[in-house]
Design goal:
Alpha-Beta Plaits; six-stranded mixed barrel; Dimethylsulfoxide Reductase, domain 2; Barwin-like endoglucanases; alpha/beta
């Protein structure tokens, strides 16, 4: 018998098994290729379309990467002036809306499917029967052209249109009118500043401008380009992400920002600061400022106020930032006015604070919360007959709407509720009619974030469901109801007509819009009737704590709660996931005898909720903080459907709906709260369980003086009293094949990393990383490839790194009020030249390839987990379950990147340095018979980073950015270098700039 080798044997076995199975198998189906393949489409080659992000009003530009007709990745448009190629966490995972399992399949009437023609006919009947003023169109801002069409529709049918964004800058817009007498929008520019003073502004984590402001602040503080770099002082009651990135955190009572702004202005005036005009008026406004009173209200020492005010006077390009949404009190307009007045005094207005004319259809011109309050009253009284809801979930996110609908229903006067959202939410499940809109990746649209910047949005995907554009549906119903003024053609034709004056529409789509920003600021002076009532905030209730509502940097107003990646990515500050937690101080925890996860009742004059606590040192004793975004009862991911309960709590339940500022805008900082322990507890979903680095080489700093001394060639002594490393320096380029032109490596600049977590979101979507859910996250089985560590100072070498007993106070971390020595340090696979993981794998599932990468071969891995045990950095993740099936239900699997293997159960996985992107760049280089250049490959984390903290490339390429930065002798170091693992990732130390001098 002839010999048969193993390969031929397996072939024969496979053929015979297949033949035996055909009798009971389904009939064979033939794959049908393209009959006429689209000219621009090559299978296996990605196509990229320019579009616009719709996650907030910033209007960031997008590049939508598609494969074989389906979008698989979102990245920033490098040509767009707002985001310049970067993208935030929410923008990165917005891809999930298109493939989400909660999408409506088509129109519904009272929960039952209905044909579109019948649905439109039903809506037309309701519009016909309602009188003028009895129809309301409520929602967010859908963009410039769509907004104009909604205005035209509202006028045609006699409806009132209300545009409301819970975090809109209403108080700031009102303040501009109060201070300068003009209706305009404000744009802050930090790129050329030398001193930033934040008065409760968490601009690095909240608001519509966080990407742009993060980039600008980094530019101003770039220690390599500007040896002095800008200084940053933060006044606030909580160690937020923004406060942790400042040079100083000055603890201040919440709501006292207006008082502080006037006191700083007076101190700057006394130090010689004078405005270019209106000096007499300015003097009159400041002459009554009392430093002792300001210190008493704010809790800030008067000496500190004078020091910072003097520093502002001495600065050549200082700027002050007004408080974020959560700190807007009933005196929010006066507070913002005081901050604008301070900026006018120090010469920032017109330069770093630009007053820009708002577009005619811009939502800032609308009354916002004032109009919403009127509509809510009309609904409760039964005056509204038809309520049309677009791009919003008012039952959850808008104060008073749910109560008004319940009141009207009880009286038999409930309006006909029509929802146009594409996904199931609290509003649509109670709607009489659901007419689902396309998702953003299926839609046409545009945005005008500021003068000269017009962003186009184009569909990159055929609609997956039976949906239609909201504008088209409304006009169809209005025309059927007898209204006049409908545009000719559909919304796509209307959009093209609106852009007819901008040039070739085809070229505009390729670019993503028109970016002809002038940047010119309106010439303004102080209004003659300027009044500022900057006093202590009006806070109601008898509790001993001021409740601080925190706009969630990931979930926003709650619209992001149904995207599982945003639930599983840890909050940048608390490192908690999937639930609501109330932040309390250590002293408060001692008095209540509670610790992490213990449930307390939070009670205000508006309501009471039970919520687990998170104990921290970085919050004042008289303050508790609760983030927005949770508390949903509907949604595959937003609600806790497995247990049949609401996930977390809605902070709106604790706030009075009628609380407004002086101009009728939404007031958030309005109530006192009391706490009471329930005696119950719930395990906390920590991603990182300690902020104690215990003096190890994990989040290093260098004093500015040492850096300057070393840069001048005078040498510098290690900031911690000697060398950390017990081994000699090494050359990472030796850790690849001698004949290979590549040794791939990375640098991470801790002085630029803000801890925003956009890199984690980008890694999830690029590399098909599954979410594991709340229970598995609590068990420590999360699958993220990047762990964004947050260290407080040098840590305590005498205390354990992780304390299992919840009652042990060391478990509460090293934060202290007034201390903001925070080091954000992304940790991922280091691609070590002497990797401990490679030495212990029994099946060679992980090895070191010729280009210096630590490679995983997934179909070799048998799940021994030896590599994870031996990894010094604990960056390898094990698939305990087949998460690929459990957590990509419905159409979510369509968003998977075909260039990256989808891992199954029992397999180890980790960062690959986006090896698929390296291979994508390899073929063109081979065709041109040259090496890959470093700038031709960007990892997903590098591409999205708002502050350019990450650099990737070939360490063997002389002159490349990564080679230059990794050889920086003044700031470079390797994580846990004493272990001699020879990492490919070089960290650059964070720079401690010290106290601002007055």
């Amino acid at each position: 018998m002839p010999k048969i080798d193993r390969r031929d044997f397996l072939k024969l076995v496979g053929v015979s098994a297949g033949a035996a199975a055909t009798g009971c198998a389904d009939p064979t189906e033939q794959l049908i290729p393209y009959v006429i393949q689209p000219e621009e489409l090559t299978p296996g080659i990605a196509l990229t379309y320019a579009s616009s992000c719709q996650e907030c009003g910033a209007g960031c530009g997008l590049h939508v990467k598609t494969r074989e007709g389906r979008p698989i990745k979102l990245d920033g448009n490098p040509q767009h002036p707002v985001n310049k190629g970067t993208l935030c966490s929410r923008g990165q995972v917005a891809l999930g809306w298109t493939y989400h399992p909660d999408r409506w399949d088509g129109p519904l009437a009272n929960g039952e499917s209905i044909a579109w023609d019948d649905a439109i006919s039903t809506l037309a009947g309701w519009l016909s029967s309602a009188g003028k003023g009895e129809i309301a169109l409520l929602g967010g801002d859908p963009g410039q052209t769509a907004g104009e069409q909604l205005d035209r529709f509202a006028a045609a049918v006699g409806a009132e249109r209300v545009v409301y964004d819970p975090f809109a800058e209403e108080a700031l817009i009102s303040a501009v009118k109060n201070v300068f007498g003009v209706e305009a929008q404000v744009r802050f520019d930090l790129s050329q500043t030398d001193l930033v003073v934040s008065l409760g502004s968490d601009f690095l984590e909240a608001g519509t401008h966080q990407l742009e402001l993060s980039r600008q602040l980094t530019e101003a503080r770039d220690i390599d380009a500007n040896k002095t770099s800008a200084r940053f002082v933060y006044f606030g009651s909580r160690l937020s992400l923004t406060a942790g990135n400042a040079d100083e955190w000055v603890p201040a009572n919440p709501g006292s920002e207006g008082v502080l702004a006037l006191a700083l202005a007076r101190a700057a005036w006394d130090a010689g600061a004078r405005p270019a005009a209106n000096a007499d008026q300015m003097e009159a406004l400041l002459q009554g400022v009392d430093f002792t009173k300001a210190a008493s209200i704010s809790g800030v020492d008067r000496g500190e106020i004078k020091r910072v005010g003097k520093a502002l006077a001495k600065s050549q390009a200082g700027v002050a930032m007004p408080p974020s949404s959560g700190l807007r009190s009933r005196r929010a307009v006066s507070t913002a006015s005081a901050v604008l007045l301070l900026n006018y005094l120090i010469g920032a207005v017109g330069q770093r604070v630009r007053i820009l004319e708002a577009p005619a259809a811009h939502p800032n011109r609308r009354e916002g919360y004032k109009a919403l309050s009127k509509l809510t009253a009309a609904i409760a009284e039964g005056k509204t007959k038809v309520l049309l809801v677009n791009d919003a979930n008012p039952v959850y996110a808008y104060p008073g709407v749910a109560a008004a609908l319940e009141k009207a229903k009880a009286a038999g006067k409930a309006p006909k509720l029509v929802s146009f959202v594409s996904l199931e939410d609290e509003t649509s499940v109670m709607a009489d009619l659901v007419l689902p809109n396309h998702t953003p990746l299926e839609s046409w649209g545009d945005r005008v974030p500021r003068p000269g910047v017009r962003s186009l949005q184009q569909p990159t995907f055929r609609p997956l469901k039976d949906t239609r554009p909201t504008v088209d549906v409304l006009w169809s119903a209005a025309t059927l109801a007898g209204a006049e003024g409908a545009p000719s053609g559909d919304f796509a034709a209307t959009l093209k007509a609106a852009w007819a004056d901008a040039g070739s529409f085809h070229e505009l789509l390729q670019a993503g819009g028109v970016f002809a920003e002038s940047g010119a600021s309106l010439e303004v002076g102080l209004s003659s009737d300027l009044k500022i009532d900057a006093e202590a905030p009006l806070v109601e209730g008898e509790g001993e704590f001021t409740l601080l509502p925190i706009p969630s940097p990931l979930l926003g107003d709650g619209s992001g709660a149904n995207l599982p990646w945003l639930q599983e990515i840890a909050d940048p500050v608390t490192k908690l996931t999937w639930k609501s937690y109330v932040e309390i101080s250590k002293n408060t925890a001692r008095s209540l005898e509670v610790s992490h996860g213990d449930i307390v009742n939070v009670t205000t004059s508006a309501g009471s909720v039970g919520v687990p606590v998170y104990v921290r040192g970085g919050i004042m004793d008289n303050v508790i903080a609760l983030a927005t975004g949770q508390g949903h009862s509907v949604g595959y991911y937003a609600a806790d459907l497995e247990n049949g309960t609401v996930r977390g709590v809605n902070v709106n339940d604790l706030l009075p709906a009628e609380a407004t500022d002086e101009d009728g805008g939404r007031a958030w900082l309005t109530v006192k709260a009391s706490l009471a322990s329930t005696g119950e507890a719930k395990p906390a979903g920590f991603i990182i369980k300690s902020d104690n680095k215990r003096g190890r080489d994990l989040g290093e700093v260098i004093e500015l003086s040492s850096f300057i001394r070393a840069a001048k060639g005078h040498g510098g002594q290690d900031d911690h009293g000697g060398a950390h490393h017990a081994v000699k320096e090494f050359d990472a380029t030796f850790d690849s094949d001698e004949k290979s032109p590549y040794r791939w490596g990375m640098t991470i600049d801790l002085d630029k990393c803000t801890g925003c977590s956009a890199c984690i979101a980008a890694c999830y979507t690029e590399n098909n990383i599954p979410v594991v859910g709340e229970l598995e996250t609590v068990r420590g089985r999360n699958m993220d490839w990047i762990r964004l560590e947050r260290w407080i100072g040098e840590g305590d070498t005498n205390s354990p790194n992780v304390v299992t007993d919840r009652k042990v106070e060391n478990r509460w971390g090293n934060e202290e009020v007034g201390n903001n020595d925070v080091r954000n340090s992304p940790m991922t696979c280091q691609h070590c030249g002497a990797a401990p993981c490679e030495q212990v794998c029994p099946v060679i599932g992980t090895y070191h390839n010729g280009e210096g990468l630590n490679v995983m071969v997934y179909n070799r891995c048998v799940g021994t987990r030896y590599c994870g045990n031996n990894c010094s950095y604990k960056v390898r993740k094990f698939n305990f379950w087949d998460f690929s099936h459990l957590n990509w239900p419905g159409d979510l699997a369509l968003m998977l990147n075909p260039d990256v293997t989808v891992r199954g159960r029992g397999v180890m996985e980790k960062c690959s340095f986006c090896v698929q992107r390296i291979h994508t760049a390899r073929q063109p280089a081979m065709d041109e018979k040259r090496d890959i250049l470093s700038h031709e490959v960007q990892t997903a984390c590098q591409q999205t980073c708002p502050t350019s903290a990450i650099t990737f490339g070939n360490l063997k390429e002389t002159g490349s950015d990564v080679a230059k930065k990794s050889s920086d002798k003044n700031r470079s170091y390797y994580a846990l270098m004493e272990l001699n693992t020879r990492p490919a990732i070089t960290y650059l130390k964070k720079v401690k700039r010290g106290e601002v001098k007055g």
